[in-house]
Amino acid sequence: MSPDLTRKFSWRHGQKCRALQVQLVPTRFPMFDLQWQIEFRKHFPYNWKKFSTFEIRIMPPFSDQPDKPAKYAISQETRSALLAAATEVFLEHGLRAARVQDIAERAGIRLSAISYHFGGKEALYLAVLQQHAEAAIAHMPIAPPDPGLPLKERFAFFVRALAYRMLDEDSPSRIGQLLVREVISPTPALDVMFERFTKPQAQVLFGLIKEILGARTPPKVLLRAMLSVVGQCMMYRVGMPMVERLSPGFQQRKGWLDEVVAHVIEFSWAGLQAMAVTDGREVRKGKFS
């Protein structure tokens, strides 16, 4: 056990002093993983409250415990199956209309496993959103690896990441579809996702647009400009059935997503440059590199 995992606590109770070692092990109920259960490492008398000191050793996560690999693997497999099945059901029906029986049946797992692993339908729904948000962040980061890139390249990098997060059917994440449904029919999970996923993205884009338009640009103008950029990407997610009717086979064309990304970047950049202000004066219009 590494020393940095060791925590010591002490108190005084009269004149009696003895030492006791215990282990703290995380509970197996994921929704309450901050709770701990105590496993005593050695026999101790019943008057243990009289002891003045004891040492608490925090065990590694279950995935690192060599004595329970098979059971842990089965547990993780069950959890993953439930998340995959729940993703499809929530996309089809939303949180309110989704039935846990359908999720369990689609996953091929007993119904009680949902309560065991997640605590209920609402907690499972939030876990699905968080899983796909994390997958989107890992698959398509919004910040370029080189923060010193020119402003237009940083703006283009963000727009591409945003569009791919929303529209890429080959992505391991379905956060675009899930969030659109959540926005249309909000649940308590919306506040959580806004703080953890949407707000950080908005702050990055807000900062980029402020660089483009100038530091003295009113916040309401920055907000409208930001929503205009995001709205172009979201239109292809929400309005794709209409786009397909306007242009049959739109999504079947090779490279359609890259074409959309290029258009949103150039269209937005030109519009932002046209309304850019520096010290309260409009800058020249035209091509900016």
Q: Keywords, please?
A:
Tetracycline Repressor, domain 2; single chain; two-stranded antiparallel sheet; 289 residues; disordered C terminus; alpha+beta; disordered N terminus; Arc Repressor Mutant, subunit A
Give the integer mean of the pLDDT values. Answer: 78
Name the CATH class of the largest domain.
Mainly Alpha
CATH topology description of the largest domain: Tetracycline Repressor, domain 2
For this structure, what is the CATH homologous superfamily of the largest domain? Answer: Tetracycline Repressor, domain 2
Distance linking N and C termini: 57 Å
Instruction: Give the helix level as a range of percent.
Output: 55-70%
CATH architecture classification of the largest domain:
Orthogonal Bundle
State the order of secondary-structure elements, H for helix, E for strand.
EEEEHHHHHHHHHHEE
C-alpha-based Rg, rounded: 26 Å
What does the main sheet amount to? 4 strands, mixed
> Low-confidence parts, pLDDT < 50 over ≥5 residues?
1-72, 279-289
State which percent range the strand residues make up.
5-15%
Helical stretch count? Answer: 10
**Alpha-beta content class:** alpha+beta
| Tally of discrete structural domains | 3
How many strand elements?
6
Q: Which overall shape is indicated by the principal axes computed on the Cα atoms? A: elongated
Main-sheet strand order equals 1-4-2-3
